[in-house]
Amino acid sequence: MTTSSPKETVLLFINSMNAEDFDAARKYVSDDMKFIGVMGSRDNADAYFKDMSKMKFKYNLKKVFADGSDVCLWYDIDMGGKTIFTSGWYHVEDGKVDWFKVLFDPRPLLEQPPKKAAAQAH
After folding, report:
1. 28 and 21 in contact (C-beta within 8 Å)?
2. Domain enclosing residue 39, as ranges
3. CATH label of the domain that carries residue 81
4. What's the pTM?
5. SS3 at position 31
6. Cα-flanking dihedrals φ and ψ of residue 29, to 5°?
């Protein structure tokens, strides 16, 4: 499946992810797509979608930049109760995303929830 521009390809991919239509999203990436993230990487599309279908992140786009085959997104990602401001750099080849890198400050995800005080015996 090809589209008219790398920007359109990336936006269709993100919109499909938001709709949790992972079959549609999969059509916008190459089989050997590489994902590089702050907290891990995936070396192919099947591994990426296996994880993403469990996490079901929501992407709230703030800004889109396109330069040739490269598209940069700034977005808030709802990661299961924590919203993280993130930048994604997507590369499109032959009408499909073939790699992307995501950068964000991971500290909010790594913070431990405050411990509740043990109930006092009466």
Report:
1. no
2. 6-106
3. 3.10.450.50
4. 0.85
5. strand
6. -125, 155
